[in-house]
Amino acid sequence: MKTKEEIFNGVKLPGIPMLIFNILLFFAIIGACVWMINASLSTWITVVCLILLGLLLIFNFISFIGYMQIEPNEARVMVFFGKYEGTVKENGFFWVNPLYSKKQLTLRARNLDVAPIKVNDKKGNPILIGQVLVWRVVDTYKASFNIDTTSKAVARPTQQGLTVRLLDKMKSYENFVKVQSDAALRFVAGMFAYDHYENEDEKLTLRSGGQEINEILEKQLNERLSIAGIEIVEARVNNLAYAPEIAAVMLRRQQAEAILSAREKIVDGAVGMVKHALEKLAEEGVIELDNDKKAAMVSNLLVVLCGDETPQPVVNAGTLHN
Q: Domain ends where: 216, 242, 268?
């Protein structure tokens, strides 16, 4: 019993010559019938010949079912009375045994934009995460026989050149990919924290992981979709945010961290400026300051440099001590 895709090795003839042969055979049968009726042959010979010509005409009509046209990135899964015989991926117009069931599949890449879902990250914080992925069918045997794509739609041509049955089948594949992508996305989101907070030693997070997170997600998806013969060409996280119930709190936390970080830079710069000012005054000999005066000057400069608002100057009309 076959369990994976194989190339069809049965009889597969060029379609145009076979079509010409069927048309010529049809007219030959009609001409032979007319000749047999008008010929002066015995009755039983005429009846036998007409029966044979009728059977040949029926066979000729049945043979028209054996034609198939395969466009680029399409395939036909050949089934003979329930037995898988192989897959035809060669492009062109062909004729095969009319008794073969020719299941149509498209191998073209398809997009799927997964809407953001609410999950918990490694720290237990509720987040919204979404993804966009590109997928395609790579194993026609698994895609045809390993998952259920039953549809009650009646096959009829569409403007795109595909059949309703094929569209329904690809819709079933898309639903299968969507369910498995949700499971993979939840699994990956639970493996990592949203960002570096309490644990600064966290090497990889959802926010900072970037390409590494996408590669892990793609691997998880391929493991889940291999049973259906589907390959993930590319998977990317395209939406990442805190859930609404904690978004405001986390925003204030981020703002506080940004303010603290900015304050640290301001203080570092202010201390350097004060140190430089004292050293410059001492080198130039502009004024001699004792420890009390230095302390007062340092205090005033730090207030001026580290304050949020523009300082208002105060003119001292007395001595330095009053």
A: 242
Same domain, 19 and 41: yes
- Angle of CA points 295, 298, 300, to nearest 5°: 110
* DSSP for residue 315: -
Query: What are the pLDDT digits (tens) for 118-163?
Result: 988 888 888 899 999 999 999 999 999 988 877 554 444 444 445 6
Two tokens at 21?
A: 């042969």
Segments forming the whole domain that contains residue 83 = 12-105
Rounded to 5 degrees, φ, ψ at 293 are: -70, -35
pTM of the model: 0.69
What is d(CA 299, CA 297) in angstroms, rounded to the nearest whole number?
Answer: 5
Cβ atoms of residues 78 and 88 within 8 Å:
yes
DSSP secondary structure, 101-156, as one string: EEEEEE---EEEEEEEEEEE-TT--EEEEEEEEEEEE--HHHHHHTS-----PPP-
Q: How many domains does the chain have?
A: 3
Do 82 and 128 lie in one domain? The reply is no
- 3-class secondary-structure state, position 308: coil
Nearest alpha-carbon partner for 144 in 103, 179, 181, 106: 103
